[in-house]
Amino acid sequence: MLELAHVSHVYANGTRALDDVSLTIPTGMFGLLGPNGAGKSTLMRNVATLQTPTAGTIRFDDIDIIADPEKLRATLGYLPQDFGVYPRVSAYDMLDHMCVLKGIASAGERKATVETLLAQTNLWDVRKKAIAGFSGGMRQRFGIAQALIGNPRLIIVDEPTAGLDPEERNRFLNLLVEIGENVVIILSTHIVEDVADLCPRMAVLAGGRIQLEGAPHDLIDRARGSVWAKSIARAELAEVAARHEVIATRLVGGRTIVHVLSDTDPGPGFTAVSGGLEDVYFATLATMRRAARQAA
Amino acid sequence: MFASIAAFELRYQLRNPVFWVVAILFFLMTFGATTVEEIQIGSGGNVHVNSPAAIARIHLILSIFFMFVTTAFVANVIVRDDESGFGPMVKSTRVTKFDYLLARFTGAAIAAAAAFAFVPLAIFLGSLMPWLDPETIGPNRLGDYLYAYFVLALPNVLLTAAIFFAVATMTRSMMYSYVGVVVFLVVYLVVSSTLRSKPELRELAGLVEPFGAAAFGNVTRYWTAAESNAMLPAFEGALLYNRLIWLGVGVLALALAYARFSFAEKGLSARAVRRQAKLAAKLAASQPEIVAVLPPARPAAAAGARLLARARFEMALVFKSPAFFVLLLIGLFNAGGSLLFSNEIYGTPARPLTFALIDTLRGSFGIIPIIIAIYYAGELVWRDRDRKMHEIVDATSLPNWAYLVPKTLAVAGVLVATLAAGMVAAILIQLYRGVTDISFGEYLRWYLLPESVDMVILAVLAVFVQALSPNKYLGWGVMVVYLVASITLVTMGFEHPLYNYGDTGQVRLSDMNGNNVGGALAWWLRLYWGAIALVLAVLAHLLWRRGTDAALRPRLRRLPARLADVSGVLIVFALLIAGASGAYIYQNTNIINEYRTDDTVEAKQAAYEKKYLKYQRLAQPSTTDIKLVVDLFPHEHRMAVRGRYQLVNDTGAPVTDLHVRLLDTDTTMGGIEIPGARLVMDDADNNYRIYRYTTPLAPVAKSQLTFVTKRWQQGYRATNNDTNVVDNGTFLNNRNFAPQIGMSRDGLLTDRTKRRKYGLPAELRMAKLEDVKAQQRNYAGNADWVNSDITVTTDADQTPIAPGRKVSDVSKNGRRTAHFVSVAPILAFFSVQSASYAEKSADATGVKLTVFYDKKHGFNVDRMLAAMRNSLDYYRANFGPFQFDHLRVIEFPGYESFAQAFAGTIPFSESIGFLADNRDKDAIDYVTYVTAHEVAHQYWAHQIISADMQGGTVLVETMAQYSAMMVMKKLYGEEKMRRFLKYELDNYLRSRGSEAIEELPLQRVENQGYIHYRKGAVVMYLLADRLGEDRVNAMLRDLIARYRFRSQPYARSLDLVNGLKSIARDDAERQLVADLFERITIYDLKAKDAVIAKLPDGRWQTKLTVTATKNYADGKGKETPAAFADSIDVGVFAARPGIGEFSKADVDLIERRTVATGTQVITLVTKRKPAFAGVDPYNKYVDRNSDDNVVAVTEG
After folding, report:
1. For the segment B778-808, what is each residue's pLDDT rounded down to a tens digit?
2. How far is Cα B466 from Cα B483, in angstroms, rounded to an integer?
3. Alpha-carbon distance B739 to B426, whole Å?
4. How close does chain A come to B1, measured CA to CA in Å?
């Protein structure tokens, strides 16, 4: 179980990327949802021992991550949002090298690990190709393969599905689900479906703060009755936006469907929608922005 | 489009670290050459460091070196896109081939040109540095820099850029581009050295030598300092054509590149396709080994595997990088060049013995390993981050040391590889030169092992700095500061190896004495710095940057807690070792021995001069008898001396005070007893004492002095460890260990800059020729003629040697004692030697000739014995009797490279004659030449000694040169002498340009080697030729007889000049003597053409057109023409005089004809059809251009 308590992170330039974040993340897949710039990567890096928070504590089971980062690293799998590769190194060799870095010394164990993971991530056929020449999906699968080396108990995957086509994305997420039973997996993303489909628990991070936390279906239940939809012409959008709190718009067959947030019936043409997680997410962001506007 | 692509390319190149590394490297090299006296390119003496000629030469030389760099820039243009995978994307845009190729070339070439601009910048900034001697700096003129940069450097940069751009375009490989550079370089070196060896091809060389160096050299070859400081060659003629021709070649190369370049990628060959298919099939055939549960990570057990894998990984990335290849090539090129030409004397190579090559290697690599360490430490430490791999890697459980150690190993690996490459180059040169017995042990012990340790220590520092630095560039910056500091701190007087990181002192190598001087201290220092490096390494481990945070502070905060494990133990352990070894070293360098910096030594010399120079003319009694017992303990680096001087007051006046001093402060004076005198002044620090006679010593009265001195270098000094009393090859002269009577100028500060710094006059000029009072003192430090009785004891396995007839030689109780007694008066200036020697002797009618040599160095012993015999034959026949019954040549370690004549005893450095390789018939036999010269000193110095005044060296050095030339002439024949004469002449003409004070006429020479050796040899050879060798020798025999063993007044150069004038038969001969001795006279004799025709009687007529000029020069090189008419050799030949095979048979006719100022046609008639004709064909005159004296004939 991963526990963050009052974690804040302020960069040298004064940006407060995390602001008193407290979270408890149990075993299983945990979705961390947030827009770009919300502080997701900072949070992930703090947990992955790549940055030291300015304040607060992070514990994983009995490991104090801040005081004892080495201990966590021994049981950590991390797939960063963006990673490069060495030129002219093949997937097989690189994975083998990563095994050594993660502490698998025996050649036999390394072979088993590398080959199992290559097969699992469908990279077996291209194992001798240089990673530099991989497509985005292949590269991400390689990334997850390396994160799984040595059976880590904590796996952190930062925006893994960005830029993947739907098929690649499905394949990738399935892989995560397979392993997500007994370990803590934190999946950060700005794509709502990633979380909705997979994660028993989730949190929304925006503006450096946790805006919402819980099981997706609880959150959806909680939001029921406050989201309303209306189909309008494109030209009417500005007017609707002025009068209502629009949390999302979507084009359907040339008409614009607006979702607005309201505790009461916002008026003619609006119907209550039993919103999805997406509405919950957007509603949360909208609330937060409103709060920020009022504070300002 | 063109401009924006070029601009993009330029920006790209300027952001590339290669640009900055190169810019800094060339900046530092140039800055060093400008500001450090020991490094000089193109300047020196009176030639200012920023004189037009020096600026031009630096630009020329560095622009040749720069081709490695231009290649990196332009080849990158072509290769980059293919390597980065951007190629297809770029090539599919609408960019045209012209824009793509040439705009990028333009950008890259501009970047290269910009990098080279750091060279003029460095000269300019260097010339402003406050520590430079203002005398060595001239005015900075923008025009000089523009000329050097735009006329010389820029065309060279563009030329090499174009050529190697073409190579890169065609090969599409960085590697092959560099192979191209190497091939180009080898061809260039071979062709240009061939052209250089043929003077008649010089004009052609001016055109075909691509870098303009030959064209520039042709114009400036014999420029005096005044000319070099004021002028630049006009941009016309050969230089202009050269630039145009080679710019044209550059354009052609670009055109070729353009023609051969194609956007299309090369398709795979059928074979490659088949191979790929096979590979794919093989891959598909094998099935993965799949396990249900992945094996767990066990970091604790993986230490070894991690170290190994990481080291292999890091090293592979480094060794496969093109930059490594480039650096290695530069290093090899550099080392190869110095190795090939090192230790040449008179153009004759030395046998490439390992110790000498290692010295050369250490010298020629110099700054390169440091640059490599700096560059690669930055690249390696920051690589994961640059490649964006750091988040993945840093989140693994890899401990910090597993980053640090392999990266350090990789940096050290690169450095060791460069060392090994140098070693391989050295071994190849040994094999090429016929050495088959390669001493791998010596290479290992003296070079590879110690230098590798030094490299690791350096690598640790570089990695440590990068580990703490917030970015790569700052880390590089810090290391450059370290580099500059390590150079400048030493020059500022901070020389102690205990605080200069990685300083392991100076190891002096010698084949005789191994690495005994400095070797052990170096290992102690390695232990000390190694321990400190370990501390740095552990700190780097503890503070290693992980993750995305570059800030150091959080890591520092965590440091104390993290010390509490193995790291802390290691640090304590390393600190203990550093402390203990440091204390031991400190005890040696500062407590047992005195720690002296160059500055303190110089300050002491200056104070000494201020205090005691006033006594330099104080009349002192002369020494008549010396009795010495010298006990040498070579392995303890210790000697003890007891001695007794008999003195006589020959000053003609009573003497009150006796000044007793010991020049060498490594030796301490013990008790001195002078009956009837008491000590009134004792300056123990300077070894200067004044004794006062209770009753002044009356004229002709005798006195006695007994003394004890001790010399003992215990342990090690920080710098300048004793090279005189050493394990094998002890060599001292009496000034190192025995007191001198009276003050002299020996041992005073001579460097003009330093003298001024201490408020002394820039130079101490010699007494004028007319100052007859100066004849009271002689040139050999005023050493008196004495009888000597010297006993030397040493270890039983060594041979003790001192001047005198050996009257006994006994070994007992592990000690060997030899007793030497003089049979004729000797100068009180003599040597004591001891080493393990092989001996070879021969007899020369009553004189026992012996060579004492290291048993490994027997190559030239017979040649030396023959030279001794031939010399004695000539000198006894022509100059008078030889005064001893023995003559010894004794080898000593190459800590100095000279041979020196003491009475009957000639110490000869191992680094000259003994190792000369005379197998090439064309090589000048300087073994014989130097031996003959030193034997001649048995007459010229040890029979007649001259006064300490202007011209003093003429009777010693010029006459020894003359004597040796005569021996050579007798051995090799007149026809072969041109090579010696030309060597001496060229040396004289070249050295004139670097005179620091003023050039003087020969009879007034003030100990200026290029005048008394070089010009003196040419002058005396001509006069013997002109006045008659026998007549000159008869005059010399008289001169010696008159002054033989005579004390004051000592002989002057005028005695010789007057003697020569007395045998001159006419005005022309008298004029010649006066021109050669009393003035600085420069002739220019030139054969313009020679037209032959067959006469009706079957003989051949040669019409030789000759031009002649004569100029008188003043001390600064300013010339005024003078009328000239003299009787000069003209001749016709079947071969060119001066080449190795030229012999008497090739001479058809040589006779004297009158040659006068202006142009004249001389007709010569011979039986045989001639091939060459010329005036002064053997170069006897001081001829400004001695290469144009002979021309090939043409048929009319």
Report:
1. 888 888 999 999 999 999 999 999 999 999 9
2. 15
3. 45
4. 30
Beta strand A201-206 with A28-33 is parallel
Mean pLDDT of chain B: 87
Asked if the Cβ–Cβ distance from B396 to A113 is below 8 Å, we say no
- Spatial distance between the Cα atoms of B34 and B45, rounded to a whole number of angstroms: 13
Yes or no, beta carbons of A67 and B284 under 8 Å apart: no
d(CA B851, CA B887): 9
Whether the pLDDT of residue B1128 is over 70: the answer is: yes
Other CB atoms within 10 A of residue B91 CB: 15
With an 8 Å Cβ cutoff, are A127 and B283 in contact?
Answer: yes
What tens digit of pLDDT does each residue of B121-154 get?
999 988 888 777 777 788 888 889 999 999 999 9
With contact defined as beta carbons under 8 Å apart, do A175 and A148 qualify? no
* Residue A179 identity (one-letter amino acid): I
Are B299 and A100 a contacting pair at CB < 8 A? no
**pLDDT tens for residues B1-32?**
788 888 888 888 888 777 887 888 788 878 87
Which structure tokens are listed for A156?
């952190």
- ipTM, 2 decimals? 0.89
Q: Which of B632, B541, B663, B1033 is nearest to B818 (CA)?
A: B632
A vs B: CB pairs below 8 A? 149
User: Which two tokens mark B783?
Assistant: 């050493």
Rounded to 5°, the CA angle B1177-B1183-B1189 comes to 30
Amino acid (one-letter) located at B1113: A
Phi first, then psi: give them for residue A208, nearest 5 degrees.
80, 0
pTM > 0.90: yes or no: no
By Cβ distance, the residue of A86, A106, A150 closest to B387 is A86
Our CA angle for B191, B208, B335, nearest 5°, is 40
Nearest to B389 among A75, A84, A127 (CB): A84
Give the nearest chain B residue to A99 (CA atoms).
B297
Q: Say whether pLDDT at B198 is over 70.
A: no
Determine contact, residues A170/A12, Cβ cutoff 8 Å: no
pLDDT at A222 over 80: no
**Hey, what amino acid is at A45?**
R
Beta strands in B1034-1114 (DSSP E): 1080-1094, 1100-1113
> In this predicted structure, what is the pLDDT of residue B871?
96
CA–CA separation, B472 and B467 (whole Å): 9
Compute the distance between CA of residue B512 and CA of residue B521 in angstroms, rounded to an integer: 19
Helices then strands, counting H and E runs in chain B, come out as 41, 30
Contact (CB, 8 A) for B52 and B228: yes
- Given this model, what pLDDT does residue B359 score? 83
Long-range CB contacts (within 8 A, 24+) of B692-699: B692/B656, B692/B657, B692/B658, B693/B655, B693/B656, B693/B657, B693/B658, B696/B654, B696/B655, B696/B656, B697/B621, B697/B649, B697/B654, B697/B655, B697/B656, B697/B658, B698/B649, B698/B654, B699/B649, B699/B650, B699/B651, B699/B652, B699/B653, B699/B654
Q: What is the number of other CB atoms lying within 10 angstroms of the CB of residue A87?
A: 14
Q: How far apart are CA B928 and CA B925, in angstroms?
A: 6
What string of DSSP letters covers B1103-1152? EEEEEEEEEEE-TTS-EEEE--EEEEEEEEESS-TTSTT--GGGEEEEEE
Give the type of residue at A258: V
User: Please, are residues A190 and A218 in contact by the beta-carbon 8 Å criterion?
Assistant: no
Tell whether B309 lies on the interface with A, counting CB pairs under 8 A.
yes
d(CA A145, CA A199): 20
CA A227 – CA A208 distance, rounded (Å): 25
Judge contact between A201 and A233, C-beta under 8 A: no
Kind plus residue range of the DSSP H or E element containing B967: helix B959-972
